[in-house]
Write a structure and sequence with these properties.
5% strand; 173 residues; mainly alpha; 4 strands; Cytochrome Bc1 Complex, Chain D, domain 2; single chain
């Protein structure tokens, strides 16, 4: 089982890496080969929140484009390792900026979870659904099969659309 999980994680990581290196069809490529994103694309990938400007200046400027940063997701340990690794590659920032960067990335690019694999208890503890919402999701999956989209999840009776929107950045289907 552990080998399967490790293999699945490797496949997801490789897909994210390839996606991060492929420019968006609506993006332009600058003189240095970096993808130049519109402000709308930047806001979609890296939402306005404290720390965003520091992330854009330090992480998404000379080294790699914002779409490459946004292709990743993880918990605090993951982002701490990534930021530490970037220092080994020459990124320069203060310890306050490091904390600001990691906090922003944890909050805005959190670890993704597959809504179809979570039990009632994990729906409550990891995504903060109420016990009633979690039960409705599990019952719907049992009756209808896997949830295939955000819209489908929002349409499950007894599940708050607002709650679904609030956790949408963390969901895989």
């Amino acid at each position: 089982m552990t080998r399967r999980l490790a293999a699945a994680a490797l496949v997801v990581w490789a897909a994210a890496l390839v996606a991060a290196q492929t420019p968006s069809p609506t993006s332009n490529t600058g003189d240095e080969g970096l993808v130049v994103l519109s402000e709308d694309e930047l806001l979609r990938l890296l939402p306005l929140a404290p720390g965003r400007e520091t992330v854009l200046r330090v992480c998404a400027s000379e080294c790699h484009a914002a779409d490459r940063v946004a292709a990743h997701a993880g918990n605090r340990d993951y982002w701490d390792r990534i930021v530490q690794d970037m220092t080994l590659h020459g990124a320069q920032f203060t310890s306050d900026e490091q904390e600001e960067i990691v906090t922003y990335l944890v909050d805005q690019l959190p670890e993704k979870v597959d809504i179809n694999l979570l039990s009632e208890r994990l729906l409550q503890t990891r995504l903060m659904f109420t016990p009633e919402e979690a039960a409705a999701i599990v019952a719907w999956r049992a009756a209808n099969g896997p949830i295939r989209s955000l819209e489908q999840l929002q349409n499950i009776p007894g599940v708050s659309s607002e709650k679904v929107r609030s956790v949408s950045r963390r969901l895989l289907f």
